């Protein structure tokens, strides 16, 4: 498994609050939710390859 790199993110408080709620609704950490959404957007835009099972 590839090692994850720490990254500092500045974000508007309202956006963070909405992300925290969304993450909790889907039983993810806030960090996990952000990573999930970024990964999904990158795949949809063809910026990274989807992993097929």
TrEMBL record:
Q: Name one GO molecular function term.
A: DNA binding
Record-level GO BP terms: regulation of DNA-templated transcription
Family matches, as Pfam families: Arc
Q: Which domain of life is it from?
A: Bacteria
- What are the TM regions of this chain, as residue ranges? none
Domain Arc-like DNA binding: residue ranges: 4-49
InterPro entries, A to Z = Arc_DNA-bd_dom, Arc_rbn_hlx_hlx, Ribbon_hlx_hlx
Question: What is the protein named?
Answer: Arc family DNA binding domain-containing protein
Native species of this protein? Chryseotalea sanaruensis
């Amino acid at each position: 498994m590839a090692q994850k790199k720490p990254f500092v993110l500045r974000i508007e408080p309202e956006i963070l609050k909405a992300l925290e709620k969304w993450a909790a609704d889907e039983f993810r950490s806030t960090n996990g939710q952000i990573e999930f959404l970024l990964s999904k957007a990158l795949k949809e835009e063809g910026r990274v390859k989807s992993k097929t099972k």
